[in-house]
Amino acid sequence: xxxxxxxxxxxxxxxxxxxxxxxxxxxxxxxxxxGPQTETAVKNFQSKSGLGADGIVGPATWEKLFSSPVxxxxxxxxxxxxxxxxxxxxxxxxxLSPECFAAMTGNFDGQGxxxxxxxxxxxxxxxxxxxxxxxxxxxxIAAGIFGENLGRLQQAINGGREAxxxxxxxxxxxxxxxxxxxWKQMFRALxxxxxxxxxxxxxxxxxxxxxxxxxxxYGLWSERARALMFDICVxxxxxxxxxxxxxxxxxxxxxxxxxxxxxxxxxxxxxxxxRAEAANPKFxxxxxxxxxxxxxxxxxxHGISYDLAAQFGLDLKxxxxxxx
Length: 324
Fold this sequence. Notes:
The chain contains 16 helices and five strands. By secondary structure, the chain is mainly alpha-helical.
């Protein structure tokens, strides 16, 4: 049979795109043009199917693609830091993993363009550092995604803040502040690569470390507690000393006869409620809903239903390195 790769066109390419779309790997409309977005989708499908991820549809990939329905994984994999980021990224962007890692917005807030699970942006210089790391460590992948546009992207991220903001303005609708194609497709393809997702996890390491220290301060040991404190650090900054005093007073009222799991859940609920009550009055209930969703392991936030154990592998299991 024929081999299909970046640059191929025709009805068979459209069939490949439709099969990938049905499986959740490809978000565009099947157009019969094998471009960077299709190549990335093929690589992701190959990785999840136990095939060599070269982005080329040969006999083995074709057979796997059409022999049975494909479906993306239902649970986020990776380390605890990666899963915490995927959860908070879903809250921040309104998109479940892996789409949260590729979420993008235009200049609605004066930052030029925001991208990724925590919406790193050009205005503050946080997005440039992630993109520079990707180009330095995985230039071959970046070149495969951005093609002839890679040089323009390099100039933008290496030319200082104003160059990056000017670039961002040139690739978005000036009224709707939405990134336009082909840049929208290219950035999305970038965010869905395991390599850039790993860079995002590294970019969130300071929040994770701060959340870990909060867990230690409050005697919390579960993976879900790590997720709760990480989310607090991202959304709320930290926990003020005045709020900590209230939390510790509430801890002192808990039953000493409770099991470790019951105690952990009760403590997380206290942290969730007290931190929410300390938020801006306009956002108290929104913060409470988000934090209790993590503490209790289930909930609905911004219209999305969450089951932390099923979707993110986050449960009342002792986190690595947590004390007894």
